[in-house]
Design brief:
It contains 5 helices and 5 strands; from the N terminus they run βαβαβαβαβα. It is of the alpha/beta class.
Length: 133
């Protein structure tokens, strides 16, 4: 079986490196890192990853909310699971992320084991949906 692909979009290199390590070494998935929303959107459309881990605030043309909305609005990419990973911590921030298309929302700083559990839960839902189709 092919490893599931996870795109990590965050403009902080240290966060991308940490999340990539967790994705590959603890969750056993293939990690692809991008530094901004534009590249996340382009890569998601080209490669159709299983999961996109997306920071809300990123420098560049598109923030995390805009990327999530664009992907969920397109039938070709609407099935990609999105986990928002953000330092924005209020209930209103989390609700907004979910309303804009995130399937889950995790606040920074996070525990690596919780990130792995959320990745596995989101990807399990993807597998179940594909099996039912």
């Amino acid at each position: 079986m092919n490893k599931q692909r996870v795109v990590i979009a965050d403009d902080e290199p240290s966060v991308r490196l940490l999340v990539s390590y967790i994705v590959e070494h603890k969750a056993g998935k293939w990690a692809i890192e991008v530094p901004n929303g534009e590249e996340a959107l382009k890569l998601a459309r080209e490669r159709l990853p299983d999961l996109l881990i997306l920071d809300v605030r990123m420098a560049g043309q598109f923030n995390g909310h805009e990327v999530a909305q664009a992907l969920k609005a397109d039938p070709a990419t609407s099935g990609i699971k999105i986990l928002m990973l953000s330092a924005m911590t209020t209930v209103a921030d989390r609700i907004l992320g979910l309303q804009h298309g995130a399937d889950d929302y995790l606040i920074k700083p996070f525990h690596p084991d919780e990130l792995v559990a959320r990745i596995e839960a989101l990807l399990r839902r993807t597998t179940l949906t594909q099996a039912q189709a």
